[in-house]
Amino acid sequence: MLNDIEQGLTGVLAGIPWAQWFSSLFLLVMGLILGSIAARSVGRLMAERTSRHHTVMVRRLVFYVVVTVFVVAAMREVGFSLDVLLGAAGILTVAIGFASQTSASNMISGLFLLVEKPFEIGDFIEVDATIGEVVGIDMLSVKLRTPDNLYVRIPNETLIKTQVVNRSRFPIRRLDLVIGIAYAEDIEAVSALLLEVAEREPLCLEEPRPFIQVTGFGPSSVDMQFSCWVARENLLEGRSRLMISAKRALDEAGIEIPYPHTSVYAGSHSEPFRVQLLAPESPNNKKDASDVEQDS
Amino acid sequence: MEQESESQRDGVWAQPYGLGSGETQFHELGHVQLWVTMLDMEWQVRVRNLEAEGDPFSWIERVGHVLPGQDVPLQRFIRSSDDGGQLTFLPAVADRPTVIRPFQPLTIPAGQRCLIYVGTLIWMKICVGPERRVLTEVPLSTPLQTWVGRNTMEGELCYSSSTVARLVLEAVPKRPWRAVTPVTLINRGTGPLLLERFSLPTPLLSLHLNERGQLWTPGVTVECETDMNAASLRVDAKLSPAAGTCRKVAEARESLSRGRLVRAFDRIFG
Hints:
Helix content of chain B: under 10%
Radius of gyration of chain B: 20 Å
Order of helices and strands of chain B: HEEEEEEEEEEEEEEEEEEEEEEEH
Oligomer: heterodimer
Mean pLDDT of chain B: 82
CATH topology of the largest domain in chain A: Helix Hairpins
Mean pLDDT of chain A: 83
Number of domains of chain B: 2
Strand content of chain A: 15-25%
Low-confidence stretches of chain A: 289-296
Protein backbone atom coordinates (compact mmCIF):
# COMPACT_ATOMS: atom_id res chain seq x y z
CA MET A 1 0.00 0.00 0.00
CA LEU A 2 2.69 2.45 1.10
CA ASN A 3 4.78 1.31 -1.80
CA ASP A 4 1.96 2.18 -4.19
CA ILE A 5 1.61 5.68 -2.77
CA GLU A 6 5.36 6.16 -2.92
CA GLN A 7 5.49 4.99 -6.49
CA GLY A 8 2.54 7.19 -7.47
CA LEU A 9 4.14 10.22 -5.80
CA THR A 10 7.46 9.57 -7.47
CA GLY A 11 5.65 9.22 -10.76
CA VAL A 12 3.85 12.55 -10.30
CA LEU A 13 7.05 14.30 -9.19
CA ALA A 14 9.00 12.84 -12.05
CA GLY A 15 6.25 13.88 -14.45
CA ILE A 16 6.50 17.56 -13.52
CA PRO A 17 8.74 19.39 -15.97
CA TRP A 18 11.01 20.85 -13.30
CA ALA A 19 13.37 22.49 -15.77
CA GLN A 20 10.52 24.45 -17.37
CA TRP A 21 9.14 25.54 -14.00
CA PHE A 22 12.57 26.70 -12.92
CA SER A 23 13.14 28.62 -16.12
CA SER A 24 9.74 30.27 -15.82
CA LEU A 25 10.47 31.20 -12.19
CA PHE A 26 13.79 32.56 -13.35
CA LEU A 27 12.00 34.60 -16.02
CA LEU A 28 9.62 36.02 -13.41
CA VAL A 29 12.45 37.06 -11.10
CA MET A 30 14.37 38.48 -14.06
CA GLY A 31 11.25 40.40 -15.10
CA LEU A 32 10.91 41.96 -11.65
CA ILE A 33 14.59 42.89 -11.51
CA LEU A 34 14.78 44.22 -15.07
CA GLY A 35 11.45 46.06 -14.69
CA SER A 36 12.64 47.81 -11.58
CA ILE A 37 16.01 48.68 -13.16
CA ALA A 38 14.35 49.98 -16.33
CA ALA A 39 11.78 51.96 -14.32
CA ARG A 40 14.49 53.48 -12.16
CA SER A 41 16.66 54.50 -15.10
CA VAL A 42 13.73 56.00 -16.96
CA GLY A 43 12.72 57.81 -13.77
CA ARG A 44 16.21 59.21 -13.31
CA LEU A 45 16.31 60.29 -16.94
CA MET A 46 12.95 62.03 -16.70
CA ALA A 47 13.36 63.58 -13.25
CA GLU A 48 15.51 66.40 -14.61
CA ARG A 49 13.27 67.13 -17.56
CA THR A 50 9.66 66.78 -16.41
CA SER A 51 7.49 67.13 -13.32
CA ARG A 52 7.49 64.60 -10.50
CA HIS A 53 3.99 63.53 -11.50
CA HIS A 54 4.94 62.52 -15.03
CA THR A 55 8.10 60.83 -13.84
CA VAL A 56 6.17 58.62 -11.43
CA MET A 57 3.55 57.80 -14.07
CA VAL A 58 6.06 56.79 -16.73
CA ARG A 59 8.17 54.90 -14.21
CA ARG A 60 5.19 52.84 -13.16
CA LEU A 61 4.14 52.23 -16.75
CA VAL A 62 7.60 51.00 -17.73
CA PHE A 63 7.68 48.68 -14.73
CA TYR A 64 4.28 47.14 -15.48
CA VAL A 65 5.00 46.70 -19.19
CA VAL A 66 8.34 44.95 -18.58
CA VAL A 67 6.87 42.73 -15.86
CA THR A 68 3.84 41.83 -18.01
CA VAL A 69 6.07 40.80 -20.92
CA PHE A 70 8.11 38.56 -18.65
CA VAL A 71 5.03 37.06 -16.98
CA VAL A 72 3.60 36.16 -20.40
CA ALA A 73 6.94 34.64 -21.42
CA ALA A 74 7.12 32.70 -18.15
CA MET A 75 3.62 31.29 -18.69
CA ARG A 76 4.44 30.20 -22.22
CA GLU A 77 7.55 28.53 -20.89
CA VAL A 78 5.49 26.40 -18.53
CA GLY A 79 3.04 25.59 -21.27
CA PHE A 80 0.03 27.77 -20.49
CA SER A 81 -1.74 28.90 -23.62
CA LEU A 82 -2.47 32.59 -23.54
CA ASP A 83 -5.75 32.18 -25.49
CA VAL A 84 -7.16 29.81 -22.92
CA LEU A 85 -6.06 32.11 -20.14
CA LEU A 86 -7.74 35.10 -21.73
CA GLY A 87 -10.93 33.11 -22.25
CA ALA A 88 -10.93 32.05 -18.63
CA ALA A 89 -10.24 35.60 -17.62
CA GLY A 90 -13.33 36.71 -19.55
CA ILE A 91 -15.55 34.36 -17.58
CA LEU A 92 -13.79 35.26 -14.38
CA THR A 93 -14.22 38.97 -15.06
CA VAL A 94 -18.00 38.68 -14.87
CA ALA A 95 -17.76 36.84 -11.57
CA ILE A 96 -15.11 39.09 -10.15
CA GLY A 97 -16.78 42.21 -11.51
CA PHE A 98 -19.82 41.64 -9.32
CA ALA A 99 -17.67 40.91 -6.32
CA SER A 100 -15.36 43.87 -6.76
CA GLN A 101 -17.58 46.69 -7.86
CA THR A 102 -15.90 49.20 -5.57
CA SER A 103 -12.41 48.35 -6.71
CA ALA A 104 -13.43 48.46 -10.35
CA SER A 105 -15.14 51.79 -9.87
CA ASN A 106 -12.04 53.15 -8.14
CA MET A 107 -9.84 51.87 -10.94
CA ILE A 108 -11.96 53.48 -13.62
CA SER A 109 -12.12 56.71 -11.58
CA GLY A 110 -8.32 56.51 -11.36
CA LEU A 111 -8.12 56.37 -15.14
CA PHE A 112 -10.35 59.42 -15.46
CA LEU A 113 -8.21 61.24 -12.91
CA LEU A 114 -5.12 60.47 -14.97
CA VAL A 115 -6.72 61.78 -18.14
CA GLU A 116 -8.32 64.84 -16.56
CA LYS A 117 -5.29 65.59 -14.39
CA PRO A 118 -6.91 67.93 -11.86
CA PHE A 119 -3.77 67.71 -9.71
CA GLU A 120 -0.25 66.34 -9.81
CA ILE A 121 2.05 64.77 -7.28
CA GLY A 122 3.37 67.53 -5.04
CA ASP A 123 0.25 69.73 -5.34
CA PHE A 124 -1.65 70.88 -2.28
CA ILE A 125 -5.29 69.86 -2.60
CA GLU A 126 -8.41 70.14 -0.50
CA VAL A 127 -10.95 67.31 -0.57
CA ASP A 128 -13.96 67.63 1.71
CA ALA A 129 -12.36 68.69 4.98
CA THR A 130 -8.92 67.28 4.24
CA ILE A 131 -6.06 69.45 3.05
CA GLY A 132 -2.75 67.92 2.09
CA GLU A 133 0.07 67.43 -0.34
CA VAL A 134 -0.44 64.70 -2.94
CA VAL A 135 2.23 62.08 -2.34
CA GLY A 136 0.89 59.35 -4.60
CA ILE A 137 -1.71 58.74 -7.29
CA ASP A 138 -2.39 55.04 -7.51
CA MET A 139 -4.79 52.68 -9.18
CA LEU A 140 -7.32 52.68 -6.35
CA SER A 141 -6.60 55.76 -4.31
CA VAL A 142 -4.77 59.03 -3.92
CA LYS A 143 -2.51 59.49 -0.94
CA LEU A 144 -2.18 62.81 0.84
CA ARG A 145 0.16 64.06 3.52
CA THR A 146 -1.56 66.64 5.68
CA PRO A 147 0.32 69.64 7.12
CA ASP A 148 0.31 67.97 10.55
CA ASN A 149 1.95 64.92 8.94
CA LEU A 150 -0.93 62.46 8.71
CA TYR A 151 -1.13 59.99 5.85
CA VAL A 152 -4.59 60.13 4.29
CA ARG A 153 -5.84 57.69 1.67
CA ILE A 154 -8.71 58.96 -0.46
CA PRO A 155 -10.44 56.50 -2.84
CA ASN A 156 -10.40 57.69 -6.46
CA GLU A 157 -14.17 57.37 -6.60
CA THR A 158 -14.54 60.04 -3.90
CA LEU A 159 -12.26 62.36 -5.84
CA ILE A 160 -14.37 62.00 -8.96
CA LYS A 161 -17.61 62.60 -7.09
CA THR A 162 -16.69 65.48 -4.79
CA GLN A 163 -15.29 68.94 -5.21
CA VAL A 164 -11.51 69.08 -5.22
CA VAL A 165 -9.71 72.37 -4.65
CA ASN A 166 -6.18 72.49 -6.01
CA ARG A 167 -4.29 75.10 -4.05
CA SER A 168 -1.09 74.92 -6.08
CA ARG A 169 -2.36 75.07 -9.64
CA PHE A 170 -1.51 78.71 -10.25
CA PRO A 171 1.79 80.34 -9.29
CA ILE A 172 0.24 83.26 -7.41
CA ARG A 173 -2.50 83.44 -4.78
CA ARG A 174 -4.61 86.21 -3.32
CA LEU A 175 -4.53 86.82 0.39
CA ASP A 176 -7.72 88.27 1.87
CA LEU A 177 -7.42 89.78 5.31
CA VAL A 178 -10.54 90.98 7.09
CA ILE A 179 -9.81 94.04 9.20
CA GLY A 180 -12.38 95.87 11.30
CA ILE A 181 -11.83 99.49 12.30
CA ALA A 182 -13.77 101.67 14.71
CA TYR A 183 -16.65 103.75 13.33
CA ALA A 184 -14.86 106.94 14.39
CA GLU A 185 -11.89 106.32 12.07
CA ASP A 186 -11.36 107.81 8.62
CA ILE A 187 -11.80 104.91 6.17
CA GLU A 188 -9.80 106.54 3.39
CA ALA A 189 -6.85 107.27 5.66
CA VAL A 190 -6.89 103.66 6.87
CA SER A 191 -7.02 102.39 3.27
CA ALA A 192 -4.02 104.53 2.31
CA LEU A 193 -2.12 103.29 5.35
CA LEU A 194 -2.84 99.63 4.55
CA LEU A 195 -1.85 100.04 0.91
CA GLU A 196 1.43 101.53 2.09
CA VAL A 197 1.94 98.45 4.30
CA ALA A 198 1.42 96.22 1.24
CA GLU A 199 3.85 98.32 -0.79
CA ARG A 200 6.56 97.97 1.84
CA GLU A 201 6.11 94.21 2.25
CA PRO A 202 8.58 92.38 -0.04
CA LEU A 203 6.45 89.22 -0.25
CA CYS A 204 3.47 91.17 -1.52
CA LEU A 205 3.41 91.43 -5.32
CA GLU A 206 3.35 94.85 -6.88
CA GLU A 207 1.01 93.58 -9.60
CA PRO A 208 -1.79 92.48 -9.53
CA ARG A 209 -2.24 95.53 -7.34
CA PRO A 210 -3.33 95.18 -3.71
CA PHE A 211 -6.76 96.63 -2.99
CA ILE A 212 -9.11 97.43 -0.16
CA GLN A 213 -12.88 97.07 -0.08
CA VAL A 214 -15.33 98.04 2.61
CA THR A 215 -17.41 94.91 3.04
CA GLY A 216 -19.95 96.03 5.59
CA PHE A 217 -20.92 97.88 8.71
CA GLY A 218 -20.51 95.31 11.43
CA PRO A 219 -21.96 95.40 14.94
CA SER A 220 -18.76 96.80 16.41
CA SER A 221 -16.65 97.86 13.47
CA VAL A 222 -16.51 98.92 9.84
CA ASP A 223 -15.33 95.73 8.13
CA MET A 224 -12.73 95.98 5.39
CA GLN A 225 -11.19 93.41 3.12
CA PHE A 226 -7.48 93.97 2.54
CA SER A 227 -6.37 91.85 -0.44
CA CYS A 228 -2.97 91.40 -1.93
CA TRP A 229 -1.26 88.85 -4.12
CA VAL A 230 1.67 86.68 -3.12
CA ALA A 231 3.64 83.85 -4.71
CA ARG A 232 1.93 80.57 -3.70
CA GLU A 233 4.92 79.33 -1.70
CA ASN A 234 4.86 82.50 0.44
CA LEU A 235 1.18 82.33 1.32
CA LEU A 236 1.39 81.43 5.00
CA GLU A 237 4.40 83.60 5.75
CA GLY A 238 2.90 86.45 3.74
CA ARG A 239 -0.38 86.30 5.67
CA SER A 240 1.32 86.37 9.03
CA ARG A 241 3.76 89.15 8.06
CA LEU A 242 1.04 91.29 6.55
CA MET A 243 -1.18 90.92 9.61
CA ILE A 244 1.68 91.88 11.91
CA SER A 245 2.65 94.88 9.76
CA ALA A 246 -0.99 95.99 9.41
CA LYS A 247 -1.56 95.78 13.17
CA ARG A 248 1.67 97.66 13.86
CA ALA A 249 0.87 100.39 11.33
CA LEU A 250 -2.65 100.85 12.71
CA ASP A 251 -1.36 100.96 16.28
CA GLU A 252 1.29 103.52 15.37
CA ALA A 253 -1.28 105.71 13.65
CA GLY A 254 -3.56 105.40 16.70
CA ILE A 255 -6.31 103.67 14.73
CA GLU A 256 -8.51 101.44 16.83
CA ILE A 257 -9.27 97.84 15.88
CA PRO A 258 -12.33 97.34 18.07
CA TYR A 259 -13.20 94.07 19.71
CA PRO A 260 -16.92 93.23 19.81
CA HIS A 261 -18.71 95.43 22.32
CA THR A 262 -22.33 96.29 22.95
CA SER A 263 -23.82 99.64 23.86
CA VAL A 264 -26.94 99.26 26.00
CA TYR A 265 -29.44 102.03 25.37
CA ALA A 266 -32.49 102.21 27.52
CA GLY A 267 -34.51 104.47 25.20
CA SER A 268 -35.32 108.17 25.65
CA HIS A 269 -38.51 107.62 27.62
CA SER A 270 -37.20 105.17 30.15
CA GLU A 271 -35.47 106.06 33.35
CA PRO A 272 -31.66 106.02 33.34
CA PHE A 273 -30.05 102.87 34.70
CA ARG A 274 -29.34 103.02 38.38
CA VAL A 275 -25.61 102.66 38.92
CA GLN A 276 -24.33 101.91 42.36
CA LEU A 277 -20.64 102.06 43.24
CA LEU A 278 -19.54 99.33 45.64
CA ALA A 279 -16.63 99.45 48.04
CA PRO A 280 -13.58 97.39 47.03
CA GLU A 281 -13.78 93.77 48.05
CA SER A 282 -12.32 93.14 51.54
CA PRO A 283 -12.18 90.00 53.70
CA ASN A 284 -15.13 91.35 55.73
CA ASN A 285 -17.21 91.89 52.64
CA LYS A 286 -16.38 88.44 51.45
CA LYS A 287 -17.41 86.97 54.78
CA ASP A 288 -20.74 88.83 54.62
CA ALA A 289 -21.36 87.57 51.16
CA SER A 290 -20.71 83.97 52.16
CA ASP A 291 -23.07 84.44 55.11
CA VAL A 292 -25.79 85.63 52.80
CA GLU A 293 -25.27 82.64 50.55
CA GLN A 294 -25.53 80.35 53.53
CA ASP A 295 -28.74 82.08 54.71
CA SER A 296 -30.36 81.77 51.37
CA MET B 1 37.47 102.16 16.92
CA GLU B 2 39.56 104.96 15.46
CA GLN B 3 41.90 102.39 13.95
CA GLU B 4 38.87 100.84 12.35
CA SER B 5 37.82 104.01 10.63
CA GLU B 6 41.38 104.51 9.41
CA SER B 7 41.34 101.20 7.56
CA GLN B 8 38.00 102.06 5.97
CA ARG B 9 38.08 102.09 2.17
CA ASP B 10 35.77 101.78 -0.76
CA GLY B 11 34.85 98.25 -1.70
CA VAL B 12 35.67 96.95 -5.17
CA TRP B 13 34.05 94.22 -7.22
CA ALA B 14 36.05 91.15 -8.28
CA GLN B 15 39.17 92.13 -6.35
CA PRO B 16 40.72 89.52 -4.07
CA TYR B 17 40.99 90.58 -0.41
CA GLY B 18 43.25 88.76 2.05
CA LEU B 19 42.03 88.03 5.57
CA GLY B 20 43.91 86.67 8.58
CA SER B 21 42.43 84.09 10.92
CA GLY B 22 40.00 85.74 13.33
CA GLU B 23 39.61 88.86 11.21
CA THR B 24 36.26 90.18 10.06
CA GLN B 25 35.63 92.17 6.93
CA PHE B 26 32.67 94.51 7.11
CA HIS B 27 30.79 95.84 4.09
CA GLU B 28 27.97 98.27 3.79
CA LEU B 29 26.58 98.38 0.30
CA GLY B 30 23.10 99.15 -0.95
CA HIS B 31 20.65 98.25 1.79
CA VAL B 32 22.79 95.49 3.25
CA GLN B 33 25.41 95.23 5.97
CA LEU B 34 27.68 92.22 5.72
CA TRP B 35 30.31 90.72 8.00
CA VAL B 36 32.59 87.97 6.71
CA THR B 37 34.78 86.35 9.34
CA MET B 38 37.59 83.91 8.68
CA LEU B 39 38.38 81.39 11.40
CA ASP B 40 40.84 78.49 11.29
CA MET B 41 38.26 75.96 10.22
CA GLU B 42 35.33 77.96 8.92
CA TRP B 43 33.98 81.06 7.23
CA GLN B 44 31.19 82.94 8.94
CA VAL B 45 28.83 85.25 7.08
CA ARG B 46 26.42 87.58 8.81
CA VAL B 47 23.94 89.65 6.80
CA ARG B 48 21.68 92.40 8.04
CA ASN B 49 19.08 93.95 5.73
CA LEU B 50 18.64 97.67 6.30
CA GLU B 51 15.39 99.55 5.83
CA ALA B 52 15.09 100.15 2.10
CA GLU B 53 15.01 103.91 2.43
CA GLY B 54 17.26 106.35 0.66
CA ASP B 55 19.63 105.53 -2.14
CA PRO B 56 23.11 104.99 -0.66
CA PHE B 57 25.84 105.51 -3.23
CA SER B 58 28.99 104.45 -1.37
CA TRP B 59 30.42 101.04 -0.62
CA ILE B 60 32.06 101.04 2.80
CA GLU B 61 34.57 98.30 3.50
CA ARG B 62 36.79 97.79 6.55
CA VAL B 63 38.67 95.00 8.27
CA GLY B 64 38.58 94.58 12.02
CA HIS B 65 37.52 92.32 14.86
CA VAL B 66 34.13 93.80 15.64
CA LEU B 67 31.10 91.57 15.19
CA PRO B 68 27.42 92.58 15.22
CA GLY B 69 24.96 91.52 17.93
CA GLN B 70 23.32 88.12 18.23
CA ASP B 71 20.24 89.33 16.37
CA VAL B 72 22.05 89.19 13.03
CA PRO B 73 21.64 85.70 11.51
CA LEU B 74 24.83 83.71 11.06
CA GLN B 75 25.75 81.30 8.26
CA ARG B 76 28.79 79.03 8.69
CA PHE B 77 30.82 77.36 5.93
CA ILE B 78 33.59 74.77 6.24
CA ARG B 79 36.91 76.17 5.11
CA SER B 80 39.22 74.28 2.84
CA SER B 81 42.94 74.54 3.58
CA ASP B 82 43.83 75.78 0.11
CA ASP B 83 41.78 79.00 0.08
CA GLY B 84 44.64 81.07 1.56
CA GLY B 85 42.22 83.43 3.28
CA GLN B 86 41.34 84.97 -0.05
CA LEU B 87 37.95 86.60 -0.33
CA THR B 88 36.38 87.98 -3.52
CA PHE B 89 33.02 89.64 -4.08
CA LEU B 90 31.49 89.04 -7.47
CA PRO B 91 28.35 90.73 -8.75
CA ALA B 92 25.51 88.68 -10.22
CA VAL B 93 22.37 89.68 -12.10
CA ALA B 94 18.89 88.90 -10.80
CA ASP B 95 17.75 85.30 -11.30
CA ARG B 96 14.37 86.38 -12.67
CA PRO B 97 13.40 89.03 -15.22
CA THR B 98 13.11 92.55 -13.86
CA VAL B 99 10.17 94.79 -14.65
CA ILE B 100 11.09 98.36 -15.52
CA ARG B 101 8.79 101.37 -15.82
CA PRO B 102 9.41 104.80 -17.22
CA PHE B 103 8.57 107.65 -14.81
CA GLN B 104 5.40 108.26 -16.84
CA PRO B 105 4.13 106.03 -19.67
CA LEU B 106 6.03 106.77 -22.85
CA THR B 107 4.73 106.54 -26.40
CA ILE B 108 6.98 105.47 -29.27
CA PRO B 109 5.44 106.62 -32.58
CA ALA B 110 5.30 104.21 -35.52
CA GLY B 111 8.65 103.61 -37.19
CA GLN B 112 10.60 105.30 -34.39
CA ARG B 113 13.18 103.94 -32.01
CA CYS B 114 14.21 105.02 -28.55
CA LEU B 115 17.06 104.26 -26.21
CA ILE B 116 16.33 104.02 -22.50
CA TYR B 117 18.73 103.33 -19.65
CA VAL B 118 17.67 101.18 -16.75
CA GLY B 119 19.33 100.39 -13.46
CA THR B 120 18.70 96.93 -12.02
CA LEU B 121 19.47 95.46 -8.63
CA ILE B 122 22.37 93.04 -8.39
CA TRP B 123 23.28 90.22 -6.05
CA MET B 124 26.64 89.86 -4.31
CA LYS B 125 28.36 86.48 -4.50
CA ILE B 126 30.77 85.85 -1.64
CA CYS B 127 33.60 83.73 -3.06
CA VAL B 128 36.68 82.29 -1.39
CA GLY B 129 40.00 80.98 -2.57
CA PRO B 130 41.76 81.43 -5.90
CA GLU B 131 39.09 79.31 -7.60
CA ARG B 132 36.40 81.67 -6.31
CA ARG B 133 34.17 79.03 -4.75
CA VAL B 134 30.80 80.61 -3.95
CA LEU B 135 29.77 80.50 -0.28
CA THR B 136 26.48 82.33 -0.63
CA GLU B 137 24.85 85.18 -2.48
CA VAL B 138 22.99 88.17 -1.11
CA PRO B 139 20.65 90.64 -2.85
CA LEU B 140 21.96 94.14 -2.18
CA SER B 141 18.48 95.44 -1.43
CA THR B 142 15.25 93.56 -0.73
CA PRO B 143 13.90 92.72 -4.19
CA LEU B 144 10.23 93.47 -4.70
CA GLN B 145 8.23 90.96 -6.70
CA THR B 146 5.61 91.39 -9.35
CA TRP B 147 3.63 89.28 -11.80
CA VAL B 148 3.88 89.65 -15.55
CA GLY B 149 1.30 87.86 -17.64
CA ARG B 150 -1.97 88.17 -19.48
CA ASN B 151 -3.94 86.98 -16.46
CA THR B 152 -3.39 85.49 -13.03
CA MET B 153 -3.14 81.98 -14.48
CA GLU B 154 -0.42 82.42 -17.08
CA GLY B 155 2.68 84.47 -16.60
CA GLU B 156 5.79 84.55 -14.54
CA LEU B 157 7.04 86.05 -11.33
CA CYS B 158 9.51 88.86 -11.88
CA TYR B 159 11.37 91.34 -9.76
CA SER B 160 10.25 94.89 -9.86
CA SER B 161 12.86 97.59 -10.27
CA SER B 162 12.86 100.29 -7.62
CA THR B 163 14.28 102.82 -10.08
CA VAL B 164 12.63 104.14 -13.21
CA ALA B 165 13.93 103.96 -16.76
CA ARG B 166 15.58 107.15 -18.07
CA LEU B 167 16.07 108.57 -21.51
CA VAL B 168 19.28 110.36 -20.55
CA LEU B 169 22.28 108.42 -19.29
CA GLU B 170 23.34 111.18 -16.89
CA ALA B 171 19.99 110.93 -15.12
CA VAL B 172 20.50 107.25 -14.29
CA PRO B 173 21.70 106.96 -10.68
CA LYS B 174 25.06 105.13 -10.81
CA ARG B 175 25.48 102.95 -7.77
CA PRO B 176 27.93 100.13 -7.13
CA TRP B 177 24.92 97.91 -6.30
CA ARG B 178 23.04 98.48 -9.55
CA ALA B 179 23.91 97.61 -13.12
CA VAL B 180 23.08 99.86 -16.05
CA THR B 181 21.47 98.33 -19.15
CA PRO B 182 20.81 100.31 -22.34
CA VAL B 183 17.57 99.14 -23.94
CA THR B 184 16.75 100.06 -27.53
CA LEU B 185 13.07 99.85 -28.41
CA ILE B 186 12.16 99.85 -32.07
CA ASN B 187 8.56 100.22 -33.12
CA ARG B 188 8.21 98.68 -36.57
CA GLY B 189 4.44 98.61 -36.35
CA THR B 190 2.05 101.00 -38.00
CA GLY B 191 0.56 102.41 -34.81
CA PRO B 192 2.14 104.07 -31.78
CA LEU B 193 3.50 101.84 -29.02
CA LEU B 194 2.70 102.81 -25.44
CA LEU B 195 5.46 101.77 -23.08
CA GLU B 196 4.09 101.41 -19.58
CA ARG B 197 6.31 98.66 -18.33
CA PHE B 198 8.88 96.41 -19.76
CA SER B 199 10.21 93.06 -18.60
CA LEU B 200 13.98 92.97 -18.95
CA PRO B 201 15.36 89.41 -19.11
CA THR B 202 18.10 90.08 -16.54
CA PRO B 203 19.23 86.41 -16.20
CA LEU B 204 20.46 86.57 -19.81
CA LEU B 205 22.82 89.49 -19.18
CA SER B 206 26.50 89.35 -18.27
CA LEU B 207 28.13 91.98 -16.04
CA HIS B 208 31.05 94.23 -16.91
CA LEU B 209 32.97 96.63 -14.67
CA ASN B 210 34.35 99.88 -16.06
CA GLU B 211 37.26 101.93 -14.71
CA ARG B 212 34.88 104.17 -12.72
CA GLY B 213 33.68 101.13 -10.76
CA GLN B 214 30.27 101.05 -12.48
CA LEU B 215 28.60 97.85 -13.58
CA TRP B 216 27.22 97.61 -17.09
CA THR B 217 25.41 94.89 -18.98
CA PRO B 218 25.32 94.47 -22.76
CA GLY B 219 22.52 96.38 -24.44
CA VAL B 220 19.17 94.80 -25.22
CA THR B 221 17.27 95.52 -28.43
CA VAL B 222 13.54 94.92 -28.64
CA GLU B 223 11.83 95.17 -31.99
CA CYS B 224 8.06 95.31 -32.08
CA GLU B 225 6.34 94.20 -35.23
CA THR B 226 2.63 94.69 -35.76
CA ASP B 227 1.57 93.77 -32.26
CA MET B 228 3.25 93.40 -28.93
CA ASN B 229 3.36 89.63 -28.94
CA ALA B 230 5.44 89.64 -32.08
CA ALA B 231 8.27 91.51 -30.37
CA SER B 232 11.71 90.02 -30.78
CA LEU B 233 14.48 90.46 -28.26
CA ARG B 234 18.21 90.43 -28.84
CA VAL B 235 21.09 90.80 -26.40
CA ASP B 236 23.88 92.79 -28.05
CA ALA B 237 27.28 91.18 -28.29
CA LYS B 238 29.13 94.43 -27.55
CA LEU B 239 28.85 96.90 -24.73
CA SER B 240 27.59 100.41 -25.28
CA PRO B 241 30.44 102.91 -25.97
CA ALA B 242 29.08 104.99 -23.07
CA ALA B 243 30.24 102.26 -20.68
CA GLY B 244 33.91 103.02 -21.39
CA THR B 245 36.63 100.43 -21.04
CA CYS B 246 35.22 97.42 -19.26
CA ARG B 247 36.24 94.00 -18.09
CA LYS B 248 33.82 91.13 -17.74
CA VAL B 249 33.23 90.24 -14.08
CA ALA B 250 30.30 87.83 -14.28
CA GLU B 251 28.71 85.57 -16.84
CA ALA B 252 24.98 85.59 -17.50
CA ARG B 253 23.00 83.24 -15.26
CA GLU B 254 21.25 81.65 -18.20
CA SER B 255 22.39 81.19 -21.73
CA LEU B 256 20.17 82.43 -24.52
CA SER B 257 18.10 79.40 -25.39
CA ARG B 258 15.41 79.51 -28.01
CA GLY B 259 12.54 78.25 -25.90
CA ARG B 260 13.26 80.72 -23.19
CA LEU B 261 13.31 83.59 -25.64
CA VAL B 262 9.95 82.70 -27.13
CA ARG B 263 8.43 82.76 -23.68
CA ALA B 264 10.09 86.05 -22.96
CA PHE B 265 8.64 87.56 -26.14
CA ASP B 266 5.12 86.99 -24.95
CA ARG B 267 5.73 88.77 -21.74
CA ILE B 268 7.99 91.60 -22.62
CA PHE B 269 5.28 94.18 -22.19
CA GLY B 270 3.13 92.27 -19.71
